[in-house]
């Protein structure tokens, strides 16, 4: 479990940057894949009545799950990389 004692800010900052970068890259990749698969751009205003319910829900699920999975993996990898000892050996 994460420490809550106000320790070093570097792991939190690195986790934030890694999560932000993962979100940006994943959203771009998902937009590209959606466009190739459906032949149209993903909806930008999901609440608009001009967007079909199927497209709105489909994009919400794909983008939400895809971005969150990428963010979690990036943050965990970044923090795991910071927790390794200086010798390069993984912690036991």
Helix content: 55-70%
Strand content range? under 5%
The coarse overall form would be elongated
Rg, alpha carbons: 18 Å
How many DSSP E strands? Answer: 0
Distance between the termini: 16 Å
Low-confidence regions: none
Please summarize the sheet with the most strands.
none
Task: Give the ordered list of helices and strands.
Answer: HH
Structure overview:
This protein is mainly alpha-helical. The chain is 65% helix and 0% strand. It has 2 helices and no strands. It has helices at 10-38, 53-83. Helix 1 (10-38) runs antiparallel to helix 2 (53-83). The two termini are 16 Å apart.
Features:
single chain, mainly alpha
Quick summary:
This protein has 92 residues and is mostly helical. The protein contains two helices and no strands.
Secondary structure layout:
Elements: H1 10-38, H2 53-83
Helix pairs in contact: 1-2
């Amino acid at each position: 479990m994460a420490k809550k004692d106000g320790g070093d800010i570097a792991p939190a900052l690195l986790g934030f940057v890694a999560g932000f970068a993962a979100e940006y890259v994943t959203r771009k990749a998902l937009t590209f894949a959606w466009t190739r698969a459906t032949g149209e751009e993903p909806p930008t205003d999901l609440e608009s009545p001009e967007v079909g319910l199927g497209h709105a829900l489909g994009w919400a699920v794909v983008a939400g799950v895809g971005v969150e999975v990428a963010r979690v993996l990036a943050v965990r990898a970044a923090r795991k990389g910071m927790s390794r000892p200086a010798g390069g050996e993984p912690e036991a």
